[in-house]
Amino acid sequence: MRSAPADAVLPERPGRGCPLDYRYRPADIAAAPALQAEHTYVIGGLYGNVEALRAIEAMRDAEAAQGRAVELVFNGDAHWFDADASDFARIAATLEAHFACRGNVEAELARGPAEAGCGCAYPEFVDDAVVQRSNRIIERLYRTAQGLASHLDQLGRLARHLHLRIGGVDVGVVHGDAWSLAGWSFSQEALRAAQQAGWPAGAQSLREAWAQSGARVLCSSHSCLPAAVELALDGRPAVLMNNGAAGMPNFRGSHFGLITRLSSSPQAPPGSLYGAMLDGLRIDAMPVHYDHAAWCERFLRNWPPGSDAHASYWSRIKRGPDYSVCDALFGAFARKPDHAVTSVARAARPRS
Questions:
Q1: Helices and strands in the chain: count of H runs, count of E runs
Q2: Number of other residues whose CB lies within 10 A of the CB of residue 296
Q3: Do 99 and 73 meet the contact criterion of CB atoms below 8 Å apart?
Q4: Whole-prediction pTM value?
Q5: Which CATH architecture has domain 25-99+160-347?
Q6: Per residue in 76-107, pLDDT tens?
C-alpha cells in the first residue's frame, strides 16, 4: 500500500515514475506550520474546469451568507483541461489567492518539459495508451502556460503538502499520499486491497501515515476516484478523505464533482453525500453541481473528438465512471450508510 521509498529506483518511462523531489515523509506534514481555519473546502482535481470553480465559489458565498467564512484550499491538479489561455489564467489566479499545494500537473508545468512526462506515476494497471495521452496533454498545457510566465513562477513556489488545524483537529492535506505528491497509497485500488487483507491489519501503511504525520484527518485527491476511510488509531478515530475529482463526475450516471468540507460546526451540511464527526470536526463529501452543458461545450472547444483528453475523459465527463458512492466507502463509513448515501447510490445506477 505504501509508495516507494525516497531512495527507490524509479521507472524511467514518462508518466510511470516521478522525480525524487516529489518525495517527503509523513513527519514533514507535522512539521509544517499549521494554518488555522474554522470552515474549509479541500478542492482536489479541479482539472481546469472553470464551471466547477464557479460552482464552488457560489457554495462558499452561500455559506458566507449563513455566517460561515469558508477557506478554499486546493490540493493539486487544479490545471489539466484548461488549454485555453484565459481559463488557465483564471485557475492560476485563484490558486494564488488561496491556500494551495501542488499536484503533479503543477509540478511539471513549473519544471517545464522533462523526462517525467505528466508526473502521474501511473501504476501498472493503467493502460500504456492512457499514460501516453496524459504525457501529450501536459505538453499541450505547457505550451499554453509558456505565455503566462508569472503564473508558472507561482506554481513553482507551491508547497508539496499543507497542515491545517480546524476546531483543534490537525489535518494533513496532500495531493497523492503521505510519502509522495504523486503517490497512490490513498487510491481506492490500494485501499480495496488493504480491505481484502482484512481491516485493520491491511491498513498498516495508512496507520503509519496518520501516526507519523500527527494528523487525525488526511485529505488527498490524486488517484481521481473518491475514497473515505474511518479507522481507530490508538483507540481514537482517524479519517482519510480522498475527494477524487472536483472538476469531473465521480459516480456512475452523475454530472457533479466532489470536494471535502471540513467544519468546526457539527451540523451536517445540506447535500452531503457521506460524512463523519471527529472530536467536534465535521467532515463531509460535498457534490459540486457545476453547469454541465456549459462545461461540455467549453471542453469540446479545447479537446474535440480525436484529441488526447477527449479519448481519455469524454466518456467519464458525459456518463461518470463505473463507480458508485458505496464503492467509495471503507471502514466505518461502510458500516454507517445514511439516507443520503443510499439515495445517491440508487440514483447512480445506469438508466435503461
A1: 12, 12
A2: 15
A3: yes
A4: 0.91
A5: 4-Layer Sandwich (3.60)
A6: 999 999 999 999 999 999 999 999 999 999 99
